Amino acid sequence: MAQNQVSTLKKGLLVLELVKQCQGITLAEVMKELQLSKSTAFRLLTTLEDMNYIYKIQTQYFSGPKLFQESTENRSAKDWAALHSIYQVAQNLQMGTYLGKVDGTDLVMTQVLHAPFQHSADEEMGNRSKLHLSALGKVILAQLDEGKLNALLDKMSLEPATANTFQDTQLFRYHLKAIHQDGYAFDDEERNVGIRCVAVPVFRNKEVIAALAIAAPAKQISKSNIKQIATKLNVGSKAVTKELEVLDGN
Amino acid sequence: MAQNQVSTLKKGLLVLELVKQCQGITLAEVMKELQLSKSTAFRLLTTLEDMNYIYKIQTQYFSGPKLFQESTENRSAKDWAALHSIYQVAQNLQMGTYLGKVDGTDLVMTQVLHAPFQHSADEEMGNRSKLHLSALGKVILAQLDEGKLNALLDKMSLEPATANTFQDTQLFRYHLKAIHQDGYAFDDEERNVGIRCVAVPVFRNKEVIAALAIAAPAKQISKSNIKQIATKLNVGSKAVTKELEVLDGN
DNA sequence: CTGTGAAGTTTCAAATAATGAAACTCGCTT
DNA sequence: AAGCGAGTTTCATTATTTGAAACTTCACAG
User: What are the IclR-ED domain coordinates in residue numbering (chains A, B) (predicted)?
Assistant: First the structure.
């Protein structure tokens, strides 16, 4: 019996799971399957029935619709816009928050949150840019292994967007190394004048799968608080990873 | 506290339902909402989390995917083919079992079961016939109120299918009155030579909504056992009604 | 650095609830 | 009528739950 578990609740949930697995099950079968006395099985089943988790037709119990009702949160696994962890980051930092993934040689926004951080910014989701042009894209590139990075750089033609952008692949690789070392990427008004951005990688099974970033007016992000912001982003990144694992049933 | 309920299980399920309703909830909020001590709330939440019903991201709990996983039975509310009660009737009587509904002036088969009564007979489902030509259709007509019956009969042209069928509406109405009185309709090889059929109505909110029937070789259905079969069908009919109510969240 | 408060976790005696053997009820079959 | 199986209830014993309080950890402010 693991610590801090309520064994009676656990028992009841095991009964529920058994009923859910079966195309109908009788009281006697529940007794036998879970080694319960008749009256215990009866009471557990009755409680589940009274609370509408199961129903009974003649001698058999079946799982009821309550198990399949959607919660207030409407989502499926791997729906990035539904991840609670991203909302938590946004609310914690009180800055625009972004999650982006790789699609070919592009960075695609899969979640964008602006104040009051309750709903996705639908009009910005799906926005694309070349990987090397944003902090999100660069922090992902910085975490790729040599082979994958080479393959991606081969596919990309580096084009300058602003005077601050790197034109030479070799210099770009050094830049990525620095980002890798820092653990975050910093965008200093390179994409939008007056806006700064900090991005960190999101990992899954030791591989980078996405990037998590905040963006805010330049006066909110200074040399003195970048490290702090990056630390909080990393906490959020780990929470995203965990949430994905849970939602995938790992 | 109602009888035969396990209060600890109930408490745990109330916690689960609260978590499911909220876009994230903290231990403190659960305590407050359900008037539980800190350690009790903690243990209930921990048990639910350990069994994968909920998950925790930093200080907040969210409902997990386990609640939405489909059970072995794949179905939605009002999917007639998914009703367990019909399977129970078939297995009890060990005869071909049918459920039919009204569509316009037709009787449509919405579930058909043959031995070994594990799967729907898909090729027969959706089969249509005129209401007056089958025991299922007739038992439905027999339970309609005068106005609805008149409206339906007006829309229908009665055509003989076999020599045993009624050609005259007046006689047909008497026939329906007899069926109403009996509480079941009996098809004596009128549709298929060698096959007999017994059908009863299925009610919902005091209105006939469908018909439930069995069909078998003539030697399995005799004058002496019709009443018995009809009684069992009526039990099944009530079980169908109940199951529909449960699935509709009544 | 210290102190504070909040969240998380654990302890343990008292209180409460769960348990299960057995009795009872009901319906069906022989 | 008796027997059987399913469903329901009883009640003394046992096990579990409960909650106050202690402890731990963390973040933040001064």
Answer: 66-246
